[in-house]
Amino acid sequence: MFPYNAYVNIEYKLLVEKSLTGEFITAHNRPFLSAQKSINTPTKKGMTFVETEEELSIKRWKRGRFDTMDEIIADVWRTESKDETVIKTFKEKFGHLKDIKIRDHKPSNEEKFLSLKERLKERLYIEIEPVDTLNLTMDYFEINPDFRKTIESRWKDGSHPDLRSMASYAMYCYEVVCLYYIGINNSLCGERLTNPLDLEYLFYAPFARVFSTNDKFLKNLFFAVEPSDTFFLTLPELKEDFKKFKALNKEREVFNEPPNKDSETYRIWDSVFDMELTRRLKPSEAEIKRKEVELKEIINIAQTGKEGKFEGESDFMVKEMFMSPDDPCPCKSGKPFKDCHLAQARNRAK
Questions:
Q1: What number is the average pLDDT over the span 240-259?
Q2: Which of these, 51, 59, 175, 282, has the minimum number of CB atoms within 10 Å of its CB?
Q3: Above 80 in pLDDT, residue 334?
Q4: Neighbours of 179 (CB within 10 A)
Q5: Which DSSP state fits 96?
Q6: What is the C-alpha to C-alpha distance for residues 27 and 229, in angstroms, rounded to an integer?
Q7: Nearest residue to 194 via CA among 74, 75, 82, 79
Q8: Residue 343's CB: how many other CB atoms inside 10 A?
Q9: pLDDT of amino acid 350
């Protein structure tokens, strides 16, 4: 994990809160990150990032190095995942959904979930007063009391036709947990102690283009909640595709696209990137050289440019990161970092 060009999304709890306050609108199937600083110069504007504590921890774990904080976190995780009261406590939060039951038991689980989702929408957005649904959402996600009056006022000002348009991400997350409760209540989901934690994977699906799992309960919920424009790929399919790619792999060669067209991974890749168009737009040598010059300018601006806020999309993002000498070099040569650009990186750091 994290050889290069990898990012950890902002924690969902913060984004739920910002969704309710109106600071976060939509995910657009891309990660949302917390920048170290914003750079605003006359020529370019951008953001710089440093590695998160989660990324640094995982890199330590890869090498079998665990510090005291890692041990504390692991102990907390083990305690939470073995808490016998967790499902009981979870179910107590959904008394307003107890009577949503399946009448016809003939359809498949997927069809049952879709039917239950329609009933859930009716309950949350028609039968219950919107301000009550809003408060149920804030209660579940334990929204800071200092923000609750502001959020209620934002709903009551009448500028939003419904809760989903006012706070689409927060309501998406609340629908996820509601559907899990309804799934339990209709014997469609199990009560494994780690299920409430596993649900958090679905909170991040709107920030991805592809979601993959081999967990039946997560798969059923994924198709029920339908994250916008996110493809689904089963874990066995993904593993099988990787085996196909590995069979075609040559030493020190890096593929720019999935090398086997007879794969679900390739079909998704092509749908997202339009490979025929991408090949036609392959940059010339002159353009590559211009980009290399621009890259050096960006790195210099990130290191020396003045901080300042800006509106709209950034021109660049630069991330400082730790790399092991044995990691693949980010230049895509296929060589280990130590045999490629490590010496150059050390010279630049001096």
A1: 84
A2: 282
A3: no
A4: 23
A5: G
A6: 11
A7: 82
A8: 10
A9: 62
* Predicted confidence (pLDDT) per residue in 286-328, tens digit: 999 999 999 889 989 988 888 888 888 889 988 888 777 888 7
pLDDT tens digits along 119-178: 999 999 999 999 999 999 999 999 999 999 999 999 999 899 999 999 999 999 999 999
Question: Is there a contact between 90 and 191 (Cβ–Cβ < 8 Å)?
Answer: no
CA 284 to chain centre: 34
Residue 53 to residue 73: CA distance in whole angstroms: 12
Q: What is the pLDDT of residue 173?
A: 97
Interatomic CA distance for residues 134 and 171, integer angstroms: 9
> Within the chain, how many helices (H) and strands (E) appear?
17, 5
Question: How far is the first Cα of the chain from the last one, in angstroms, to the nearest whole number?
Answer: 28
Unique residue bearing structure tokens 């330590």: 60
**DSSP secondary structure string, 177-199?**
HHHHHHHHHTTSS---TTHHHHT
Mean pLDDT value across residues 90-97: 96
- Contact predicate 174/70, CB 8 Å: no
Q: Which two tokens stand for residue 11?
A: 């924690």
Beta bridge partners of 49: 319
CA distances to 63, 241, 267, 282 from 235, in Å: 25, 10, 16, 32
* Side chain identity, residue 279: R
What rounded mean pLDDT belongs to the chain?
89
Find the helix or strand (DSSP H, E) in which 281 lies.
Answer: none
Closest CA to 251 of 151, 334, 159: 334
Are 225 and 176 in contact by the 8 Å Cβ rule? The answer is yes
Q: What is the spatial distance between Cα 218 and Cα 199, in angstroms, rounded to a whole number?
A: 7
**What single letter denotes the amino acid at residue 269?**
W
